[in-house]
Design a protein that fits this description.
ATPase_NBD; binds ligand AH0; binds adenosine-5'-triphosphate; Nucleotidyltransferase, domain 5; alpha/beta; 7-stranded mixed β-sheet
Length: 397
């Protein structure tokens, strides 16, 4: 039915668009829903977050996803069932947010849905000859579109891979368009389950823009806080603050080949898992460790690998500001350690006008805005930032 194509075309030509960006990250804490008003495109994008909410997941939802999440062996049926189920759940959550915000679905031009990553397998990690970089996000876009009546773009990472990337980090595009600042070198550090950063040069040269994952953010802290303390996360780093760092364990934790790989690189909880820590405990001969010392050491592990990645990526002597976002920015032990290791104050992205918890959802709104109304932006020949349009279109009818 061409009416849908015509509507999309009309949307692409509007002076501004209302786009709902969705992110459901590796922490499985909930669905981030950012209702944005976007104007312009590329480096001329102006975006206002009109509403933002994290809709928390019910425990049943989390455990259903955890059954297949980041695992090599799963019940295949569970994966297949979850694909439409997550799409429908996300659609329902969007409708609830819209009702709460008193906005009719007809007032929204697009939904930009990341989906739920269930397995991330860059070539450097799976190492299987002849197979490319691979990643899988589920929560089908057609189900979101039909449930909400809103044209939906989804599955953004496949094009990035098709164009030579690892499917992540995608934040770099939104970071460059929204947060570049003349005469200030910026590092935009996001600490979700996994941590990543974008370097934005103060001379605004797109070919110098750089992005990479650094390793764990909160994923290991969360996993062991759940295991030993029965809580979802180490609120305000209070458990870490009460523990002592175990240097031998810390050394063993840092021995992954991931840290030896050149930039840019990506990873996930497939590598940084409970088994990864158990192996490091064994390697370091620490079969018995106080749980709070373990959390303190895991927090330090994230802080050191994040700061070392930033240091190694930046030419020595280069002055830069670091702006943090993601749930880890709420952890003062993590933030404090990174600040001390980099010998500078770590600022919050909120200073730049976007709430840190909303940043990744906003990013997908930016990517959808680019797909429907952007021009090609050239980021140079380096790997990791192909200048391609991302997102697959689902029509509501
Ligand atoms: N007050 C707090 N104190 C300590 N940690 C916190 C706090 N609030 C949130 N977090 C951490 O942030 C995590 C959620 O972060 P976020 O929502 O940015 O991750 P995500 O988007 O799921 O992950 P990713 O970006 O890797 O996909 C929680 O699981 C928790 O570890
Ligand atoms: C495969 C995948 O889902 N990766 C996520 C994850 O969470 C953080 C980090 O690892 C990042 O690379 C990415 O998400 C953000 C939104 C990104 O692509 O920029």
């Amino acid at each position: 039915m061409k009416e849908h194509v015509e509507k999309l075309y009309a949307t692409s030509r509007k002076p501004s668009r209302r786009i709902i960006g969705l992110m459901s990250g590796t922490s499985l804490d909930g669905l981030d829903v950012a209702l944005c008003r976007a104007e312009g495109s590329g480096p001329e994008t102006h975006l206002k977050v009109e509403h933002f909410k994290t809709v928390p997941y019910e425990e049943d939802f989390r455990s259903a996803v955890r059954e297949i999440f980041a695992k090599r062996q799963i019940d295949f049926q569970q994966l297949v069932l979850l694909n439409p189920f997550i799409g429908l759940e996300h659609g329902r959550m969007i409708l609830e947010c819209l009702a709460e915000w008193r906005i009719d679905a007809s007032e929204v031009d697009l939904i930009a849905s990341h989906g739920q990553t269930v397995f991330h397998a860059p070539q450097k990690q799976h190492g299987i000859a002849g197979f490319p970089n691979a990643t899988l996000q589920i929560g089908d876009g057609d189900h979101i579109a039909v449930k909400t009546g809103i044209i939906t773009l989804s599955d953004f990472r496949q094009k990035h891979i098709a164009a030579g990337g690892e499917g992540a980090p995608l934040a770099v595009y939104g970071d460059y368009f929204l947060f570049s600042q003349k005469e200030e070198n910026r590092i935009l550090l996001n600490m979700g389950g996994i941590a990543n950063f974008t370097f934005l040069p103060g001379n605004l040269d797109a070919s110098l823009v750089f992005t990479t994952d650094t390793g764990p953010g909160n994923t290991l802290i969360d996993a062991f806080t759940r295991l030993h303390f029965g809580k979802a996360f180490d609120e305000n780093g209070s458990i870490a603050a009460s523990g002592t760092i175990d240097e031998a364990l810390l050394k063993a934790l840092k021995e992954s080949s991931f840290f030896e790989q050149p930039f840019p690189k990506t990873t996930g909880p497939e590598v940084f898992s409970v088994d990864y820590v158990k192996n490091a405990l064994q390697l370091s001969g620490r079969n018995v460790i106080e749980p709070n010392d373990l959390i303190a050491t895991l927090t330090r592990f994230s802080a050191e690998t994040i700061s070392e990645a930033i240091r190694n990526a930046m030419p020595s002597g280069e002055v830069f500001e670091v702006y943090a976002s993601g749930g880890g920015a709420h952890n003062p032990v993590l933030m404090g350690a990174i600040g001390r290791l980099l010998s500078q104050n770590i600022r919050l992205i909120d200073e730049l006008g976007v709430a840190g918890d909303a940043k990744e959802a906003v990013l997908f709104a930016v990517l959808a805005n680019e797909a429907v109304s952007g021009e090609a932006v050239y980021f140079g020949e380096k790997q990791g930032v192909p200048g391609v349009s991302m997102g697959k279109v689902s029509f509501p009818g």
